[in-house]
Amino acid sequence: MNVFQRIGNALSRFMYGRNGADQLGLCMIWVLILLNVANIFVRQGIAGAILNVVAAILAVCIIYRIFSRNLYKRRAENAAFLNKVWYPVRRRFTDARIQARDKDHKYFTCPDCRAVCRVPRGKGNIVITCPRCGKQIRGKS
Ligand SMILES: [Zn+2]
Q: How many angstroms is it from 118 CA to the middle of ligand 1?
């Protein structure tokens, strides 16, 4: 067994039973990178100091979450993050992509209940009745 295999095995043993990197952790790392990039431009003054402190606290939280052995709590945090942020954002992007590809229909979002209504294109000025709440939406298809 060479040195690198030994180091790899030791790391595996060390990380056994620990949380590691999950979606929340990766997202926090991206936020940390953005904060540090923003800090390059701000640098001086009270804003720079606040950015530094926030970035340091975030870095400590990331490291704590990666090495935490309380898997139950970390997974609950990650699940809450996935349900409240990750899946809605991902769904919005996939919906936008699907709507951009669909050249035969136009999409309207109900201002009251946020339901998405699909209508055929090229019918002129129309009044759409929301199928969920019944509100009437005027638009050009
Ligand atoms: Zn509606």
A: 13
Look up the pTM and report it. Answer: 0.70
Domain, as residue range, for 129: 105-141
Ligand 1 geometric centre to CA of 137 (Å): 9
Tens digits of residue pLDDT in 6-33: 999 999 999 999 999 999 999 999 999 9
Query: What is each CA distance from 48 to 1, 37, 42, 52, 79, in whole angstroms?
Result: 48, 11, 5, 6, 33
DSSP 33-97: HHHHHHHHHH-SHHHHHHHHHHHHHHHHHHHHHHH---HHHHHHHHHHHIIIIIHHHHHHHHHHH
Are residues 81 and 140 part of one domain?
Answer: no
